[in-house]
Specification:
Elements lengths: L1 E14 L3 E8 L3 E7 L20 E7 L8 E7 L10 H17 L7 H16 L6 H13 L12 E3 L4 E3 L9 H11 L12 H18 L9 H7 L2
Antiparallel strand pairs: 1-2, 1-4, 2-3, 4-5, 6-7
Helix pairs in contact: 1-3, 1-6, 2-3, 3-5, 4-5
């Protein structure tokens, strides 16, 4: 079936010398993997390696056979040409980290247009704003709404956040954050992308990042912490 859709590049893996296997989160069909033959040869101008950088937003035309095998692109062009993400070291590091997070988090091969729209909007926001220190934290937390384990914030007066059930508790059980961690987590829940970026100190962002990674690990089977985590920590140190 010939499909025209937007697609966000989640990962690309070099196959043999000249080819690529590209995993995309598509607006029309959710997660899809594509085989790009001779991606490194330069013979096909519409399939250049630049299209397949992490979290690039593409407009694609593709043959979807939907047989569980690799699909093939027919046409590719940029849906959004980033102005700053590819040249700003902080933003490019954030994007590499988030692409790994999404790679380990999105597994369903089914349409999720709300998640696609959220990610597309968020990435365009990142590209067009300068104050982005909390972007990765907000995006990871907001993404849990679409993955099914967003915290129940109906009892935020309680002092402890219970990680397994995703609820706030008056008692500090085995799987609870401590009082300070819970305080930071509550502040994060209230944040939007355009909120004051100076609301957290660097060490507090590190604490929140660890909380989010642990939270993902608890709620997603087989979740792996990204290899780019150390680089991200260096950038925000």
């Amino acid at each position: 079936m010939l499909v025209k859709t937007k697609a966000i590049v989640i990962s690309s893996l070099r196959y043999q010398e000249k080819s690529l296997i590209v995993k995309c989160f598509t607006q029309s069909d959710g997660l899809k993997s594509y085989f790009v033959q001779s991606a490194y040869s330069g013979k096909k101008s519409n399939q250049k390696i630049a299209y397949f950088q992490p979290l690039t937003i593409l407009e694609i035309e593709a043959n979807h056979k939907n047989k569980g095998t690799l699909e093939h692109f027919k046409e590719i062009k940029l849906a959004t040409a980033y102005q700053t993400i590819n040249t700003d070291i902080v933003k490019s590091t954030i994007v590499i980290f988030l692409s790994e997070m999404l790679h380990h988090s999105i597994h369903e091969e089914e349409k999720n247009e709300d998640l696609f729209t959220f990610l597309e909007t968020a990435l365009i926001w990142l590209d067009t704003h300068d104050e982005t220190s909390n972007f990765h934290l907000i995006l990871l937390l907001e993404t849990t709404k679409f993955l099914g384990f967003y915290p129940d914030n109906s009892e935020t007066d309680f002092n402890f956040f219970e990680m397994v059930d995703g609820i706030f508790s008056p008692f500090q059980g085995t799987n609870c954050l401590n009082e300070h961690e819970t305080f930071l987590f509550k502040k994060l829940i209230d944040l939007k992308f355009d909120s004051d970026q100076k609301v957290f100190a660097g060490i507090e962002r590190q604490i929140l990042l660890k909380i989010l990674l642990d939270y993902y690990s608890i709620h997603l089977d087989g979740f792996k912490k990204p290899k780019s985590l150390d680089v991200l920590k260096e950038v925000f140190a």
